[in-house]
Structures are given as structure tokens and as C-alpha cells.
Specification:
Glutaredoxin; alpha+beta; 2 domains; Arc Repressor Mutant, subunit A; 7 helices; 5 strands; elongated
């Protein structure tokens, strides 16, 4: 796999860097761009970002490993996050998560063999008023039940 941003992506990153007093502050947006492009933050991607921003590799690794939003292994095309925190749990979020594990045949931070889905149990996504909540990639779904969850997954196959 060739690890390089396009010219357009480099220009976007340069634009982001102008918003901050030092390049280090552009690291999180750079990692997010990389994850969107390659699907996860591999060691090669971390080295690329390190070179691009002229930052120590250890710093890149530290940030990428601290934040759970950055995947350190390949995930599915559709990354399913199910909230099981208090508000969602009280409205069966934990049961939806268990159902998701069974339906997809995978556990926390695993991907299906065909790479279509990955699953993550999350603590809170800030949608307590619409609990239970599920996110798939960057789309959020509130007031989910098992039936609507199944329909949602089936629509993505």
C-alpha cells in the first residue's frame, strides 16, 4: 500500500496547520484524515505523519494510542458503535450490543471476515435523550431497538 496523501489532501493539511501556532496542534486532524483515507492508523501511516509534520514518531504513537477514535488495526467498512452507558443501558443498549455480537459473529473491536462490519462497545456518545444510540461510521441513530438495528444493518450489506 502506497502511503501518501494526494496533493489536495496535503493542501488541506497545510490549511489546517495555519489555524495553529505550531504544527504539533495539527496532529489530530492529520491522523483523522489518514484514518479516513486508509481506514486505520498503521505503523507506516504513523511514520508518514511523523515525517509530514516533522514530529517525533513517539509523539505520533502516543496520541494515536491514547485516543480510542483512532483504529490501530483494520476495521470494517461499516464501523458499528453501540452505547451501553447508563441511559442507553436502561433502554436496552446492552441487549442491542449483545444482539449485534451474535448477529455479526464478532466481539468488541473485531471485524467480520469479509471486512464489511466491525463492532465497538462504547461508553457514551452524548445522546442520552435519544437513548439507546448507535453510530455507524459518522452517522448517528437514536431510539434504536433490535428490530430497527437489524433493518439498519441489512440496509448496509
Amino acid at each position: 500500500m502506497d502511503i501518501a496523501f494526494s496533493q489536495e489532501e496535503i493542501e488541506k493539511l497545510e490549511q489546517i496547520k495555519t489555524k495553529y501556532p505550531e504544527p504539533k496542534a495539527a496532529l489530530m486532524p492529520a491522523l483523522w484524515m489518514a484514518q479516513k483515507k486508509w481506514g486505520w492508523i498503521s505503523p507506516e501511516v504513523m511514520q508518514y505523519i511523523s515525517n509530514l509534520l516533522n514530529l517525533p514518531l513517539a509523539h505520533i504513537e502516543g496520541v494515536a494510542s491514547f485516543y480510542t477514535m483512532y483504529h490501530k488495526k483494520p476495521m470494517g467498512k461499516h464501523h458499528v458503535q453501540v452505547c451501553t452507558n447508563v441511559s442507553c443501558m436502561l433502554r436496552n443498549g446492552d441487549k442491542i450490543y449483545e444482539h449485534a455480537k451474535e448477529k455479526l459473529g464478532i466481539g468488541h473491536m473485531e471485524a467480520t471476515q469479509d471486512g464489511t462490519f466491525s463492532l465497538e462497545e462504547v461508553e457514551c456518545m452524548g445522546a442520552c435523550g435519544g437513548a439507546p444510540m448507535v453510530a455507524i461510521n459518522e452517522d448517528f441513530y437514536e431510539n434504536i431497538d433490535i428490530e430497527s438495528f437489524d433493518k439498519l444493518l441489512d440496509s448496509l450489506k
